[in-house]
Amino acid sequence: MKKLIQLLFLSCFVMVFVIPAITWAEEDPLAGWAPKFDPSKAQYTYLLSCVGHPAIEGVMAGFRIRDRLWEESGGRIYVDYRPLSILGGEKDVINKLKLGAIQGMMSSSVAAANIAPKLGIVNIPFLVDSFDKLEQFRNTPALWQPFASAPVSSGLEVLDITSYGDYGWATTSAVQTVADARKINFRIAQAPVNIDVYKAWGLKFTVLPWPDVPQALQTGVINGLDHTPIVCNISKKFTVAKYYTELDYAQGLYIHIVNSKWLKKLPADLQEIFRRVVKEESKVARDLTLKQQDKEVAAAKDSGVTFYKMADEEKEQMKKMLDNVYEKWAEKIGKAYFDEVKTTLQ
Predict the structure, then answer these.
(1) C-alpha distances in angstroms, 240 versus 171, 210, 262, 310?
(2) What CA–CA distance (Å, rounded) separates 98 from 26?
(3) What local confidence, expressed as pLDDT, does residue 22 receive?
(4) Is 253 helix (H, G, I), strand (E, B) or coil?
């Protein structure tokens, strides 16, 4: 009887402690991207957040930055990278970044205007609206430097940008005109620029956090999604929304923002390595994203998604509807800067 009781106790112990631990390990969302080195002896840790999935090249850049910084710093800097919204929603993460509770964030471009209005310049429709214009924006100092320093009053600095492709509409019915779009309830991000834009277009929209989108789309609460083909295909949104309108009104970006106080505490040599690696790997990610978009569009078409290109006359009509939005955001961003970006890129 005593042995039986001991056996039962051991069985209970295994069920209560060991099995949950095994299950947790199997369900660790970052297990497949664990570092191949021991970060415990790093002198400096850089806690970096992102909402996206590492299957997206612009998100995967964080892991490449981690591994290169470890190697080039001789193990002195460890980038503790947490994508997949592990550290919370973007508004919460922005507050943590300002307070120094985390050191870095790859913020979606739609959320970045919540940090500083000038960061919203990249989300203004038909402005930075192609891969070529994105590179021109990034590599023109007169455009890039004011953008990079925009959040300085919050103790932050923009280091660089990666992309997740061209914005358009994934819908459950075909949309080829503005009239078609008025039949759709679009999900848009929690972003001030997007709200103003959709109001100006006269379109129905619902503001939803990204984690709430799958259920809303499946249950019909929304029947359209304002996003890129890369994200829609990788996150399986095309299993419900079988139509995609290539509107290409903006580039989806991850804006790499760092807490300036933390960065300045690094020795000068590590600051140089840190900035250089982030810049180089961000450029690699942007180049890979262009190829990834072609790949994901082809895969979506193969799975039965129908793609449409919005006619030029329809896009011109949409641009004309945005006159008040351009005026409002030019004032928020700074009219001289807004006009310089517009003139240089167009």
Answers:
(1) 8, 16, 43, 21
(2) 33
(3) 37
(4) strand
* Assigned token pair, 196: 């103003």
Q: What does the pLDDT look like over 281-307, one tens digit per residue? A: 999 999 999 999 999 999 999 999 999
49-99: per-residue pLDDT in tens? 999 999 999 999 999 999 999 999 999 999 999 999 999 989 899 999 999
Residue listed under structure tokens 């990204």: 210
State the Rg of the chain over Cα.
Answer: 22
Among 314, 307, 331, 23, residue whose Cα is nearest residue 166: 307
Instruction: Assign 321 to helix, strand or coil.
Output: coil
Structure tokens that stand for 220 in this block: 């019909």
Strand partners of residue 162: 254
Closest CA to 157 of 165, 170, 147: 147
Mean pLDDT within 221-225: 97
| Size (the chain), residues | 346
Rounded CA-CA distance 14/12 in Å is: 5
Closest CA to 80 of 65, 95, 98, 96: 65
The closest alpha carbon to 151, from 121, 124, 122, 119, belongs to: 119
Query: CA torsion 145→289→30→68, rounded to 10°?
Result: -60
Domains and CATH numbers, the chain: 41-164+252-295 (3.40.190.170), 168-250+299-345 (3.40.190.170)
- β-pairing, 44-50 vs 306-309, is unpaired
Return the closest-CA partner of residue 51 out of 278, 216, 211, 260: 211
Inter-residue contact 203 to 186 (CB < 8 Å): yes
Q: How many CB atoms lie within 10 A of CB 153?
A: 9
- Is 147 a residue whose pLDDT tops 50? yes
Residues in Cβ contact with 49 at an 8 Å cutoff, skipping those fewer than 6 apart:
82, 83, 86, 87, 88, 93, 96, 97, 102, 104, 105, 106
- Give the CA distances from residue 196 to residues 98, 115, 174, 327, in Å, rounded to whole numbers and listed in that order: 26, 17, 24, 11
Cα–Cα distances (Å) from 304 to 55, 57, 292, 297, 322, in that order, read: 21, 24, 19, 11, 33
- Check: CB of residue 208 under 8 Å from CB of residue 216: yes
